Amino acid sequence: MRFATGTTVKDFADYAAWLEVAVDCGFAMLTTGDSQSLWADPYVSLAFAAQRTTTQRLAITVSNPMTRHPAVAASAASALQHMSGGRFVLGLSSGDSALRNIGVRPAKVAETEEYVAAVRGLTRGETVTWQGAELVQRWAPGPTPVWMAAEGPRTLRAAGRIADGVVLSNSLTREAYERNLGHVAAGAAEAGRDLADIEVWCMANVVPAATEAEGIAQVRSVLAGTANHVFRFTTEGKGLPDHLVPRIEELKRRYDSRHHASPETAAHNAALVDELGLTAWLAAHSTVAGPIGRCAERLAEIAEYGVRNVIVAQFVPDQLGFMRVFADEVVGRLS
Prior knowledge:
Elements: E1 2-6, H1 12-24, E2 29-32, H2 42-50, E3 57-63, H3 70-84, E4 88-92, H4 97-100, H5 109-123, E5 128-130, E6 133-135, E7 146-150, H6 153-162, E8 165-168, H7 174-190, E9 199-208, H8 212-218, H9 220-230, H10 245-254, H11 267-275, H12 279-286, E10 287-290, H13 292-305, E11 309-313, H14 319-334
Parallel strand pairs: 1-2, 1-11, 2-3, 3-4, 4-7, 7-8, 8-9, 9-10, 9-11
Antiparallel strand pairs: 5-6
């Protein structure tokens, strides 16, 4: 298995220390997100990272079509590609907290698919059409792999048709992983592509703790955020048991996006998953938690499904300590 990890940047001195430890721990890819109201701009953050790393891939997981014109995104991506020596990957989705916090609607599936094609084409020096306008990047392009974060059948199929890679959430059970990969494969077939040509990564909350229950409790607000994102448009085709549908609808109604991806300030969101009886089901699909041995065992189980690339989320108080423990003790047991 290959492991990536990421953080949200609020202090660049802290980020410099984080990068140093992440590199030392051997992570293959370093990521950050795009949510302008909650943390620093991802292109600025990864430009900072590009100057302090040499071999690790650098990825935005993920941006959206609504806050950046495709020509703006492509120019920024090309600049990062030049600065990093070809190590940058741009992930895209319909948009979540970045949009909720400024009152902008998420992109539709067709809009996201068109945006992916436009940005990717522009970074390759192609002339593209976007909303009726002809666009071209008139300075040196920097060919950039463009991935999609996808959860529902339509978006997964779109990723299979157009994206260079796909980031899967809520896919850490065999049934969920195989179902979601099947949709990606179907989309690839529609476009005459092969699933093997699409890089597949799975998101996972990894939380070493005294017990599995204690680890899961630490990321309850993250479980709420993932559920709010995965099921925000529809619950259909996503493996959600019928008896949980009304509970998810209630979670979406009451979710507070001001504290998205911020466990330290999201007590309201954390309480929701317990109150609504969603914790166990959501954790099984997104979280690896517990003693070191249990975390290694769970990752080995996931590998048996065919998962080879995992983005390790760091929703833990001590990120530097976590990375060292993960690299030395968890991954060490998988070797």
